[in-house]
Records
---
Amino acid sequence: MKAFPAEFDSLLTERAHALLKTPSAAGAMQAPGKTPIAVFANVMARSRAAACVKLLDRAMRGALRRMRTPIPRETITGMRENYAELLPKTMRVQTADLNSRRSRAAAAAERIGLLRLMSSQSLRKLAETVTGLSLAPNPDRQVILYEPGDYSGPHNDHHPEEPCARDGYVDVHIYFSTPAVKNQLLVYEERGCLTEAVDVSTPSGLAVYRLPFWHYTTPLLAKGTSQRAANRWVLLSSYDIDR
Ligand SMILES: [Fe+2]
């Protein structure tokens, strides 16, 4: 595969294609009182997912930057009151923002058809079906790579300073894991407790979130000795809700 197809839905298996159009998919995150997230595992053939990883690896790896936000030591040394600890957003990933056309990462993504795929009509339509919302075209786009030990700490993705996002927005994650990945979980809140966990380390998958809510991803674990080959790629498209 030299480039991604123009439309996201042409990457899907027949089964996933059908599933994502059914009322159960549509109802997956619209139940009242439930956290609005839906995760669909193995939506592509394994060989297709492997080809996507190969393409991302070749074209995007060199354009990523490391993002390491450790826990500030002062969260402990500066504490004066028992049980008053607060954890800021911490993470360790590699990422590239694809929104500035002039960036090296966006140019690389453009060359392999990634920008087009991530703003394709079929991806937006699918997110509309699953969320039951009308979504604005032209999503913000970002690529994330998790290697062994990489994680995103608890955060809620609330953006109260942005008029388009302060009342909520929709994120779609298309993801791929190499066979050397043993496990990575997405943990999220349900009725105020971080009790829900879903395995997002399947060869391919799709997650649709109506944010904000609290969530985190656990450190990526590799199988045995295959540390370097354990990679999880996430393609993230963020949509404003058409109100
Ligand atoms: Fe997040």
---
Amino acid sequence: MAGIYIHIPFCKQACHYCNFHFATSHRYKNELVQALLIELELRKAYLGPDATIETIYFGGGTPSLLTQAETMSIFDAVFKHYHTDLREVTFEANPDDLTAGYLEALSQTPVNRLSIGVQSFFEEDLRWMHRAHTRQQAENCIRMAMDTGFNHLTIDLIYGAPTTTDAMWQHNMQRAIELGIEHISAYALTVEDKTPLSKMIRTGQAQTVNADKSATQFVMMVKTLTEAGFEQYEISNFAKNRQYALHNTSYWQGVHYLGIGPSAHSYDGRSRCWNIANNRQYIKSVVNGIIPAESELLTTADRFNELIMTGLRTMWGVSLQALEQLDSSYATLFQQNIQKYISAGQMKLESGSCILTQEGKILADGIASDLFVLT
Ligand code: SF4
């Protein structure tokens, strides 16, 4: 089992909080798509001769800026160079791109899961975030996607923004539930370096983000969504009817993946590599047959820490056996260090795995880093 991630590095406008790699100029879009096709061929051996691609994820940036022909050219290259047995093909999309015609065209491709960047059903939030769509476009595109036959829909929501009151956050979740969404990814607004938001806060043009408010809205979210029948299968991901996102779940389970496109990351079990985050340099290098990537070999301690970090965020937890197989002395240390969290009711042991309780989940990142071994 393996996956392919394809990064489409273009957006209509820059959302204030975003630190992903993208350009708002689409001048090099044709060349970039051609470069993606070349990279798919150049890297066909990366995952090894026996790899079968089961998931593909189009992320960005904004994949819904691709035409149907461009999307199909990428699929053609994947099918030509890789052995596939596709279970899930996810396509990130923004509401302003999802017209009835676009959805119809997309439904003719292998895409079987749409991930829609809704973020909020309030104009006030959307304006503050500098999103390119309106509340009405978000609602309409969800209905149209369902009418077009997309059964696997996920929406992204953001909580903790200065404009988002608790009542508005409650309404956002309620609206998603009423619309029949079966998968929600919800993230606390964070202020990342070098984003317009961090500059706006520094210069007093925007209010700072309140951590207490984010924590309150996180607790509201867990309660509301679990009462509505969702499972919190990862800290930020909720699914009804076991509609787990297979591609993202495979990241958390250590499945190997190949990342194509500028800034995309890859993992082959031993090392990680990442492509240059610059569209022009990426294109120039790839057309000359050179993959513009840097890589790092993972040590046992790196892999041990990653198992802890990703495992603790999921409802399946960290497998003690997997830790033991990686390094028995690290595993013994881990077993000693978790006792205080078990006593505090923040962690439990179940079926050979160490799992965070509801109280522990809110502290997940801090607990994980406390349990890391030194690299
Ligand atoms: S559309 Fe997505 S990738 Fe583009 S700027 Fe907004 S959040 Fe970032």
